[in-house]
Structures are given as C-alpha cells and as structure tokens.
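Internal QA ticket QA-208
Title: Verify multi-chain structure generation after dependency bump
Assignee: T.L.

Test input:
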Amino acid sequence: MPDLSTSYLGLKLRSPLVASSSPLCKSVDNLCRLEDAGASAIVLHSLFEEQINLEAHELDRWLEPNEGFAEAQSYLPDLTSYNIGPEGYVEHIASAKRSVRIPVIGSLNGVSSGGWIRYARLIEQAGADALELNIYYLPTNPSLNSSQVEMMHTELVEEVKGSIRIPVAVKLGPYFSATPNMMMKLDRAGANGLVLFNRFYQPDFDLENLEVIPNLALSNSSELLMRLHWVAVLYGQIKADMAITGGVHTAEDVVKSMMAGAKVAMMTSALLRHGITYLAEVKTKLVEWLDEHEYESITEMQGSMSRRAVADPEAFERANYMRVLSSYV
Amino acid sequence: MPRTKVTIDGNEAAAFVAHKINEVIAIYPITPSSPMGEWSDQWSSEGKPNIWGTIPSVVEMQSEGGAAGALHGALQAGSLATTFTSAQGLLLMIPNMYKIAGELTPTVIHVAARAIAAHALSIFGDHQDVMAVRQTGFALLASNSVQEVMDFALIAQAASLESRIPFAHFFDGFRTSHEVAKVEQLDVEDLRAMIDDELVRAHRKRSMTPDRPVLRGTAQNPDVYFQAREAVNSYYRACPTIVQSAMDKFAKLTGRQYHLYDYCGASDAKRVVILMGSGADAAQETVEYLNAHGENIGLLKVHLYRPFAVEQFLEALPKTVERIAVLDRTKEPGSIGEPLYLDVITALREAGRDIPVIGGRYGLSSKEFTPAMVKGVYDELKKASPKNHFTIGIQDDVTHTSLAFDPEFSTEDPATVRAMFYGLGADGTVGANKNSIKIIGEETDNFAQGYFVYDSKKSGSVTVSHLRFGPRPIRSSYLISRANFVACHQFVFLDHFDMLASAEPGATFLLNSPYGPDAVWEHLPRSVQETIIRKKLKFYVVDAYEVAKQTGMGSRINTIMQTCFFAISGVLSREEAITRIKQAIKKTYGKRGESVVQKNFAAVDHTLAHLHPVEVPANVTSTFEIRPPVPKQAPEFVQNVLAPIISGKGDLLPVSAMPLDGTFPTATAQWEKRNIALDIPVWDEKICIQCGKCVLVCPHAVIRAKIYESDKLAGSPETFKTAPARWREFKEWKYTLQVAPEDCTGCGLCVEACPVKDKTEVKRRAINMHDQLSLRESEAKNWDFFLNLPELDRTLLSTSQVKDVQILQPLFEFSGACTGCGETPYIKLMTQLFGDRAVIANATGCSSIYGGNLPTTPYAVNGEGRGPTWNNSLFEDNAEFGLGLRLSIDKQTEYARELVRKLAPELGDELAAAIFNADQSKEKGIFEQRERVTALKKKLEGMKSPEAQALASIADMLVKKSVWIVGGDGWAYDIGYGGLDHVLASGRNVNILVLDTEVYSNTGGQMSKATPKGAVAKFAAGGKATPKKDLALLATTYGNVYVARVAMGAGDMHTLKAFLEAEAYNGPSLIIAYSHCIAHGYDMVHGLEQQKNAVACGHWPLFRFNPELVQLGKNPFVLDSKPPTLPLDKYIYNETRYSMLRHSNPQAAQRLLEEAQADIKARWKLYEARASQNGATAPKAAVENEPAKETPHA
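Actual output:
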C-alpha cells in the first residue's frame, strides 16, 4: 500500500484528497461522511462578510419602525436578539471540530479590511486548523489598475497574517497579468498556501426574457489543465504550499496535480455531481494507480512534472502554444 | 437600591406589570391597545417569566369577544388572567364582563380608552368605551399618566384579588398609551410585595375542578335571580377601602401616594374642577400656575370611578368649595348630562351638599385639552350664571355649547426644552426622537416626555414629534404650541405647512436642506422668511440626505438629524451627546449586526461637518408662497371643510361646518395634490405595446390610458404624448398613457409590470422612472388635458381583456394607501368594471382607512355622477352589513317591480314590460334599463298617486346594483368569519372580496388565521406554528358559492375573469385576493414578482369554483395554476417576515419550512383530486397573465 500522506499548510494529512469549500460542508453530518469517505481535510463553506452585512441591513431596514401611521408604527416584532453575523459559522466550526478528526479549514470571503480581520480572528478562536481566504474579487472599475488590485490582495494577506496564528491559505482567481509575480507577492506577504484557482460565476443571457441569469456550471477535468500549468510553473519558486482546486474529478487528476507540484487536490464538483461516497472511489483508484505504477508515496511524485523537473521546460511556455496551434493546420 | 428609570409609553408600562403578574393572557389587536398584546407575546416568546417564574401563556383570539370568553374560562379554571383592549373591542367584551363580575372573579382588563365608532370611526382617545362598561360590575380605575399606568396596573390587580371585584384599568388612548415618558420602573420585589399569594391561592380554590366540583352559570327564575344579584353588594361596598389600602401599601413601597380621589390646589378653594384621565395632568399644571398667580382654585382627580365611593369623594373635596365644574371626556346624546357629572351631582345630593355643579364635555377623540381650555372652565365658574352642559375646545356655533377661552394662555415652564420635529414616517424621525428621549431620560436627571402626531395617510405620511425635557416633572399632556426648537426634516414641507407658527421668538430652526447656508434663503417661501426674521430665529441647515448617502443610510436620516438636534440644542454637551448617541445606537442596533452599528456611527461622525448656521438676511426676498391646500377650482365643501383639515387647521372648524350624520361627498382625493413621489413613471410611446398591465397594477390609479379620435388633440400641451392606437376597432385613433404626477407615490410597480424591454438597452421599459420635480409642472398640464379627453363608450370595449380594461375609468383613485399597496389594484379593478352600480360594505381595516379616512377620500364618480357608494359599519359585522344592503336593495327592487306592474296602465304597457323583463346580465342591458328608468321617472313626475310617488323614490332600484363586501383577512378569517359564513350560506347575490395580506395590516401586522406557517408576525413572534386556514376551500363546501383565489401578479387575466364571473353569478361569490403588503418586510416594488413566486411554489394555488358549471355537467372546481415548481424557501426567504425567524430561531425556521413544504404537497394533491372529479381531466392548463400580444422585444 503506497503512502498517501502529504502535508499542507503545516498540517499532516493522510492523503492529498481534500474536500473543498462547498454547500456540502454546511452540514456536520456531511463532514463526517466526507471524513469516512477518505477526505484528509475539509475546507468549510465560506463565511461571506457581504452576505452577513446584507442580511443585517435588510433586517435593519424592515424591522426599523416606519412610524408614519398612528395605528401601525411598525409591522414586525423586533426581538431581543438575532443570529446575525458570524455566530452561526463559528458554532459550525466548533461543531465540526467536535465531530471529525481531520483538520478543518475555515473559509472567509470578506469585503472590508476590518471585516476580514474580525472574522479571521473569530474563525481562529472557534478552533479552525487553518484559514482559507477566499478572495473573490472582480474589478469592474476601469480606473483601478492592476498594481492597485495586486496591492489590495497582498495588504489583505499581510493584515490577516498579522492578526492570527493559524496558517493562512489564499484562494484566488487566475486573471493576473503576471501570475507568477502575483503569487510570489502573496508568498512574501506570508501566505502559507495558495489555492489555485477560484472559479468565477459567469452570467448567462436569457434571450427570451432579455435577462442576465446567474450561472455556475460544475467543473470538469478540462479545467484542470490551467491549474496544472501554473502550479507546474510556480513549483519550487515559492515557499507556500499549493493546492489545486477546480477540475479535479478523477484519481488521474489527483496524480497530475501532485506531479505538477500541488500538496493537495481539492474536490467539489465531482462530489456534488456523484455524491460524497465518490471520494472513496477516487481514493481507491489513486491507490491502484500508484500501485500499478509502482510509486511508494505521494510525496515521491510531488513536483515531478513541474516546469523545472521536466526535460523540456518550454512545454510550459509560449512556444508550446505556437506548436499547438500549428498542429491544427 | 433605587429603582430603574425607564422611558417607555403607557402601553409598555401596563404590559410590563400585566405580564409579570398573570399566567394566561388572551389578546386581540385593536388600536391603541395592540402594543400591550404585542409586548406580552414577544416577552413570552423570548421566555420572560412572571414573578412566580413561569412564562405566561399568550393566546390570540379571533375577536375581543373571543378574548373575553377565553379570559372568563381561564379565570374560572383558576389562573390569573388578563386581556387588553380599546373602544369597540371593550364593547365586544361586555357580555363576558357581566359574567366575570357576576361571579366575583378577580382580574384586571387594561384599556387604552378610545372613542367609539358612531357617525365615524376614530382611533383616538376618550372615555366613551369605558363609560359603556360602567354598569357591568367591573371596577373602573383611571390612570392619568404613564407612571400611574404602571402603578395602577399593580394596585388594580392587588385590589381585585382582595376584593374579588374585577377591574378595568384605563388610561387615555394615544395621549397616555403612546406618550413616552420617564418613569420609575417597579421591580419584582414591588410586585411580590403587592400581590398576596394567599389571595392567589384563594382564587385558585374557587376554580372549577372535577376534584372539587362546583356548578356556576345556572339559569335562575323570578323567585331568586333578584336576591342573588343583590348578594354581591357587600363586596362592592368594601372595594373602595381595599383599593385605598392597596394604594397606601404601594405608597410605603414606592413613596408615591395615591388616593381614590386626589385633590390638588388651594385647600380653601371655592372653584373646583373634577375630571379623570390625562386631562387631569394638564389641569393640575394649570391650577398650580394660576394659584401661583393669585388664583384660589382646586382640582379633584378621579381615580376610582367604579365603585363610586361617595364618602371618600366628599372627603376629598374642600369644605370651602362653592362651585364645581365636572368634565367628561365622553358624549351621551340625549342624556341629562354625562356620567361623571351625574355621579358628582348624585353624590353631593346624597350628602345634602347644595353646591352648584356644571358639566361639560372635552377632548373627544384626543381633541387637544390645554391649560387655556382649563382656564376657560375656571373662568366660566366665576360667572354669575355659568353655562351648564358646555363643551370646551371646539367652536359650537349651532347649539352654542362651547365656552370661550384664550388660546394664547400658556403655562409652559421656561426651564423646559420644547422641541418639535416635522418628519416623514419613512425617514425615521419618530424613532430618532424616541431614542433622544431615552438618552435624555435615562442618562440625565432631566424629566422627559415625547408625543407623536401621525398622518391619516399610509404613504408619504407626515409625523410631528413633540418633545419636552426639563428639570421639573412634566405634566403637559397636550401638544407643544410654543417651541424653542423646530426641526424640519423634509425640505418639501416648507411648501405645505406653516411649521414656524409654533416657534417662540428666538427659537432655533433646523432645516434638512439640499441647499447650503448661502443658497437656502432664496428657496424659502415668503412667509417662512418673514417669520424667521420677525421671530429672530436661529437658523441652521444640514444636508442630511447627502450625509445619509455618504454613509449608506439610504433614506433614513434619523441618526443624522438626532445628532444635529443634540449639537444645536445644548441639552447635553456635544461630546457627551455623541457618546450617548453612539451608546444608544449600539443598544438599539447592535442585535441587528455590527455593520448596522458602524453605518450609524459613520452617520453621526459625518454629520457635524455638514451642519451650518445660516446668516439670516434682513429682508424678505422670496417670490413664492406656501401652496394652497387645494386648487381654486375645488368644490365649495372641499374648499371650506376639507382644505383646512389638509393644512392642519381642522381644529378650527366649527360644528356648523360638519355633516350632521357622517355623510361626505365622494371624489375628493383628486383635490389633494400630495406630491410625495421622488420619481414618477414616464411613458415611452415609441416602444409601448399598449397592453395595459401598468394601468392594471397601479395601486393609486395614477396611470391612465385613453383612446380617442385624433382631432381631440387640438390644443394639447407641447409635451403631451400620443401614439397610434393598437386596436383593430380603432385603427385611426390615438392612444395616450398618462401619469398623474402629483398623485403618484413612486412605487415603481408599473415598471415591474411592463413586459417590454428596449432592444437597444434592455433595462429600459415602455415606462421608466424619472425624477418628479423636473416633470411636475409639464406633466400636471398634460394630466389636466388628458382628463378632459372624452371617456370611450364602454360598450365598445371588451371588459374581459386586460388591454381593454385599461380604458375603463377607475372610480377609486389617489388613496392614501401605502406606496406599492397590493390591495388597492383589486378595488380599483372592481370599480372599473362595476363602479357605477357598486354598493360597498367595507370592514374596518386598511381598506376602510385608505377608503374613508379624512380629509379626502378616493371613491370617485364618472361623468354621469355615478360611482361607488361606500360605508364602513364595523370590523366584525361587515358581511352581515353587506347582506343587509343586499336585502334592502332586493326588497326595494321587488317593491318597485310590483309598483311598475300595478302602474303599467298609466306608465304604458310597453315601457312597463320592457322594464319588467329587462335582461341586465350584461352591461349593455343595464345601460338600456337606466334609460328606461329615466323615461319612467319622467312619466312619474306627472303622476300624483301615492304609488307613483313611492315608485319615483325607488325607481333607481330597477337598475341592477352590485353589492361588494370588502375587507381584509383579519375580518374574513377571524373576527367576521361567523358572519361571512352565514352570508355565504344565505344564497344572496353578494360579492365578497377578501384582500388577504395574511396579517392584520392596519393595526401593524398581527397574526391572523390567514398568516402562513413559519411567518413571524406580531402575536406570533416565534413564528406561526399552525397552517393558514384554507378559507377558499371551506367556502367551496357549500356548493352554491362562487369561489376564486386570485393573485394579480401571477395571473391578471385570471383575476379579471374571476371578478367578472363573481359578479355574473347570481348568488354569493367569494374572491380571495393575494395582496402583497409592507408588513411582509420587503420592497413593494417586487410585490408582483412575489405573487408569481407564491403561486409557483404552491403556497397560493389559483383556482375558481363556479357552481354554474355543475348545471353544464362540468366539474365546478377548476385548478388554474400549474403544479408547484419552486421550492418554498425560494419564495418565503425573500420576505423578512419569514427570514427573520432564521435569525431568531434557525431550528424552528427549518422545521416550519419543512412542515409547510409538506403541507403544500398534501394540499396540492387534494386540489388535484378536486379538479379531477366528475369526469374532469387533469388540472386545467394555467390561466396565466394575459399574453402581451406582441413580443416583449420592442
């Protein structure tokens, strides 16, 4: 039996199979099932500061008496307390920690500097083993330049790192002009891990009703390639551990991720599509693959096909692109 | 340890004590007592125990009668129990009150005393209700202030337990129930000390239990009933002493000594006034002031009115008294005098004291009762022949009962800060002021008082806050008329109100102004400029909306204006004030989330930089004046009576100005141009497909459509828009969609309903919102021109098409309903279809308020002067009232037909036969019958026989009348259900329209049996645990009732069809209409979308049950919506009424969601089964919205 263990964010994990942040993680029962199916760590669903604020403001808006009419000075009872804010999430972490033995990684999506830090501390205090900063930022203001966006990211990581002691991973999108440089900056800012990459909602058009409709399709293995590419390029150039998320669907995808240089491979869409028990199948097949190919451990293969480890580094560069195009001719 | 000082209102004070010393609380909403029930329900749902450590059971009943019955039962089974009520509610309790008193059962009913509906309903305070129960055997104990409410709530309970006499503890509705004041809160030890557990156990021992069986409620006969009735006498004799003992015991605990009759003033006074209630405080302030200025007068404040304690009463009166004036806050038409007056005379007579007594009425319906009026009464007592049976506070120029008084007389304490704030309901002014009172009351040594005057409209409503703070106790139970601080929170008010009339010379004037200190002057009306200069006002401006915008506060400027008040008024130092405001913000908003707190903190921090003093110029320079309340062309009655009410001067109208019997003209809302919309819809004639959906959904009938021949455009204003009419029948005609800019409330429902999207920019519709101010003048001209375009002959239109219905003139317009109201589009539709022959019985509730609240009312008339006739009888009796209208009409029609038959030879057999056999099933037939009746009346003019004259008086009844019984779910599902059921069973031809908002909307959102499972409402603070009653399905069980459940937003054609079928059905019809409501807690602009969601998730399945289909061999039950496709949570969690439960009790929310989802599934199965019976196939395909004939791509 090959050794599947790996380490990520300084955490010893029994395998590289990590259940990524998804609605499945909202239920403690599911967390237990994920652990049973072979997940070596769990990234909880994200605590969205924006959603907390939105809910708070909505509640405030509609509970604030609209005192203009003598008979109806308000329309809803304003109770003594509400579970508005991070309390539910914090309780969920605590509950998760009580229920599973594998590491539990909190996930946070903030909108304000104060919010990131406040909630990061709460997540740490609740007992999370690590924190994943889910930076879901879509610049729409054309006057905001790339340096400013990058600085926002690095300052955020610095601030959070300066506020908590548990390891911090950064999950972000791929759209940077100089992706390796950006990742290096995050690395230098103190990120213990980089989770590559976030998948963005890409709205669709309803042509009959002329409406923009939210859309998030589950990923497939083809999306893995971009992640492999950047992990392979970055491997060995940064200190932070790398995780691949998005497009990990099969044992082969996991192997590729490891060979590119990732410490863990995170799965979401495959579990949503096939169910939690699918993770056990992937694990079984991963073991089979390793046995079949006579690998003794996961660590053995990590980075083995990174840019610096392959015979032809150009395979990861622009020339490669040219060759692909020419092959169609 | 000193007791906590709290700033609360009278209702909270009463509820605080009642909840602590009772076990069962039966409640029902009625203004102004509803908050007592709301507090009780909330405290119990939050687990707050009574003094014995158990949480009181709070149960909402279907009516006050039901609450009284439940109270009676709870008491009989040995619990300590209470209820709260007012006005009509107390009257509904009378039968049980006799029973409870007859059985010597201790309890206290807390009453926020209110006027009784007579010539008109009034929600405001007087003693007409409590005076109507003085004969029941209940003791009546009056509290005059908020502190007394808390104290007497306890004293009454203690005395009731000991005396076994039940008590009605009352205080003045609004003036005391809603006045916020700083009071000392009783603590649990006080309550324990006053409530003797031995007496509680004695009460329990008397209870009904099979372990010690007794029998009560016997039927007695002439031999013994009388004696048994007299058997209680000793208890009533003992009661006053017991009450005084309780008062004495209370005094030892708290230091506040009360007496059954509290005298104040000169010990050797010769003139004494006697009264009870909040007016006594104003009277005491006046007496103290006048005595300090050389007078020698006294005041007797009555607390225990029943049992009337003659001995203690006489003891309280000074021996020197020579003349007495008794003031009653009630009216008993036809009596020798009002009750307190008669009691005083009887007491004096029985004691052999021959003192002249005059009696008078004051303060009905919260009419102001001021020191000036009090002085007027004392002055009257000085006269050689003082007027008896007088009134004070009004000008009675008909029967000349009124006393004169000097309105300039004032007893205001110069040391008291008197501040007035003019705001909008929506801008948070009242909330901010309540907060300020709390800050000053609880954080400083000052006494504090706040009272709030509200509008009669539900949208764009104006509030005036009256705040007093000072070092001495405040007894001023009247509005401020000499303010040293006036704040105007809305710049547009300057155009409407003379708010500076109340400003003292040298006062401060704070204005929320979009114009800065250098620019504002030129934007003030002349009279405002003149007053500022003449009174030497200190003038400040702040652009609160700019601060709100910068700090994410939206339209709420409460915190900003509050900060300005503290910064300018000097009540506290700026630094201390800001600290206190922030503490208050944390306390108030902390539970709603940190970001809410931070937003308010930011508003405070940004405010002072935007607050500027204005250097007042020496001269008046403005070229415009305050707008007249109504235009010059308004009818005389509107000019003379309604206009003063609109401009806040209704108090000055004399008796002679008022209709004798409550009859008012209709079609008056058109004259009150409120201009409350910031944005109004603007028609894009180029892309409009003329579908009429915007017209249909407009809650205020401000979007109208007409088609007309193009020559009618002659003389049209420059900006008047028109488009070729898209009707096959009117090919060469023009079409115009016009908005009434000054009547629109800016809800935006029309834009949401528009199916068109501009091909080049899809966010644009065929109707889009633009700012009102820039369009007001031009669109007002266009509106006037539009109104003068001819109405199309209705017979040329198909009323079964939404597109054609838009052309029908609405006879319900510009109501004061909430912005985006979900009810009014249904009423408007009814008036478009049947308004010229509609007779409406309207249950009390939202629809009676926006339908009939003064000053102006929305039911209108057509060009022939015909339109709906409307009346609101009561809340509970509306179905019966409507049936009575039907019976009366049918009887007169029958009699008229008998007379036509009898007089046929003289009238001409042809005309008589035509009238007699007229087919009025269609509108055309009705119009033809009208013409025949006109001819008939003409013929009758020349006939002198009694039969002919009788026929002339009822000839109009030969034309079909459409009776509509309209009300909300509180009426139909709860208080009026028995009557509604009976009317449904009657088989008579009435149409019942239930505007189902799923809560008691008008009284502020209390749970009804229409409230769905899982929704939070007042009285259901923990989420409603039981499902909504399926009233529609119940009604179908009769088999001969037409029933439809509709939702205009989900199926406009379906709604239209249901209305037409209901009216066509010659029997009872019931339409239950989904009405989105502000009480649901979301932006009403999404109301139509939520209606769609309600149907799509199966919460609100559309169906029609038409008994006529049975005769055609068909299944009468037609399911009109598709099987549920939307998960319930996707519908309900768009609304705060549901989502807040997820925050307050997530587990309960989840459980109730799952149960409700299962309920939907089960009910859908049942409906499918009903729809499949009698050979009918699968549920009929959905009758959805009328397709917008052409592509939405414009």
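Spot checks passed. Chain B has 40 helices and 37 strands.
Status: verified.
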